[in-house]
Amino acid sequence: MRLFDDKLAQMSLFESSMFDHAFNHRKYQPFQPTPLPDRTWPSQTITKAPMWCSVDLRDGNQALVNPMNVQQKLQMFELLVKLGFKQIEVGFPSASKPDFDFVRLLIEQNRVPDDVTLQVLTPAREELIKNTYAALEGVKRAIVHVYNSTSKVQREQVFGLPEEGIKDIAVQGAKWVRQYANNYPNTQWGFEYSPESFTGTEMDYAVEVCDAVIAQWLPSGGRELIINLPSTVELSTPNLFADQVEYFCRHLQHRDQVTISLHTHNDRGCAVAAAELGILAGADRVEGTLMGNGERTGNMDMITMAMNLYSQGIDPTLDLSNVLEIIEVVESCTEIAVSPRHPWAGELVYTAFSGSHQDAIRKSVAFHKKQNKTHWDVAYLPIDPRDIGREYEAVVRINSQSGKGGVALVLERDYGIELPKWMHPVMSGVVQKATEDSGLEVSSGQIKTLYESHFLEVHCAWQLHDYGIQAHGQEIRASFKVGQSLLSGQGAGALEALSDALSRHYGCDIEVTQFDQHAMTSGTDAQALACMEVKVNNVVLHGIAQAEDTTAAALQAMLTAFSHHHRVAKHGVSFLK
User: Which of 136, 138, 255, 341 is the most buried (most CB within 10 A)?
Assistant: First the structure.
C-alpha cells in the first residue's frame, strides 16, 4: 500500500508540474535539423520497391489491447506470406512465452517457406539473446534483430549513462549475437541492429555506435547485415528525417556492405512520407505493418506505401489485388476496424458523392472506353479500383450532395439505362428530393425504383394497347387504343397524330420540346428506350417508355408524360412529387 501511495504521489507531482497549463506551446522546442546544405535526396526518384519487412506480429501485436492468439498469429503470418513478404518479424521470443512458443510452432510444423526469412527482436542482453537463439533452433534462415536506445533523452533520463556507456551496450550486444550464432551453424543467419530513438540521437554519435556494431560483424561471411534506423517517435517533418538518413548513409564506414532499413512511426501522421523520403535519401529497406497498426498512432503503413508505388507504375513486389481479404484478416486479428477513409483500401476512397466529381468520373470513364487508352488517367480515380478487388458499384454513391451526372451513371452502369443529357437534371431532381426528405444515402436499387415510378410506370388507363396508321397525302390519320378509350388524330407522323388526338379530346395545348430514342441493346429483339419532354398548357412534363416497337415506345412515352398532366388537372397534386 505504501508503494502505491508513493507512486500516486509521484504521479500527482508530475501532473502538477507539467500539466498546470495543459495547452501551452511554450513547453515545446522546435526539432533541430541536421546540417546538410548539399542534400541530394530532393532530386532523386523512387524507381523500384524497397525490401519489405512486416512487423505486424511483433511491433503491431505488442500494441494491441488484446494481443493475438496463436490462431490469429497463424492467420496473419499466412496472409503475409501470401502477399509476398520475404522477411517477417514474428515476435520477441525472449521476452514473451507466447512469442517463444509461436516461433517454435512455425519451425516445428514447417510453416515457413524456403524463401521467407523469420526475424525476431531482442534487447542487447546476454540471457535474452541466448533465449532468442533457442527459440530459433532448427530454422533455415533468420534475422536476429538486436537493439538499444541511443537518444540523448534516454541516455540522460532513463539509463543515466554517458555516450561511451551506451555504445558499450550496443557493442557487447553485437558480440553476443555473433557468438551465439556460431552455436547454430546449420542456419543462415542475418544480423540487424537498431539504434532505438534514432531520430532523437545526435547523428555523429549514431554513426559512431553503428560503426562499432558493424565492426563486430565483419567480415560478414555471407550474412546480411542490417542497420535499422527507427523513428521510434516521429519528431520532425519528413524532409528533416530524410536529411538524417542521407547524413547517416554518407558517413557510415562500411555502407556498401550494409542494408539500411527504416522503421518510421506515425506520431505526426507522416510515417509513409518519411519512409518514402528516407528511400530517396539512400535507404534500402522498410519495416512496417498492414494498415499502419502499431504503438500510439501506429507504424508505417505498408499497404499505403506499396500502393503509392503501384500508382506510379512501379511493381510493389507485393500482391495487393484482394484488398478486401487483407482488411478482413487485419480486422479479425487486431480487432481494430479499418477506417472507411483509409488510403487506397478504405470502403469510401473510390466513392464520389459530389455531383461534379460524379459527372467527371462518368465522362472520363466513357472517354477511356472510346479512345481505348492503354494507361489509366481517370478523373478523381488515381488507380482502377478493380485492380485491388474494388468494383465500380462503389465509385458513385448518391446522397443530397450528389448531382445529375452521378445519378445518370448509376442507371447506366447498373441497369443499362442511358438517359439523354436533358433528362439528367430531371432525374437528379427526383433523387435529390428523396435524399433530402430522408436525409440518407439512396441505393442503386432505390434510384431505379424512383426512375420507374416517376417516369416509366403508368396507370392502365394510359397504356397504349394498339394503334393504326393510314397515309393520306402528306399526312397520316391514326387511331389509338389507350386503356378503354379510342382516340384518333392526324399529323405528319404518329407522334403528331397522337398529340392532335390528345389536344382535341382533352382541350389542351401540347408541344413536344425534347425527344430522344435509342436501342438499349443490340439484336433483332432489342428494346427501344424513348424519352419525352412535353409542354401541356405550358406545364413541362416527362415520360419514358421502352418496347421492341420503336413507334410504340415513342407513343407510350408521350402518353406517360400526358398522364402526369391529367393527374395534376384532376387532383391538383403533381405526380412528380
Answer: 136
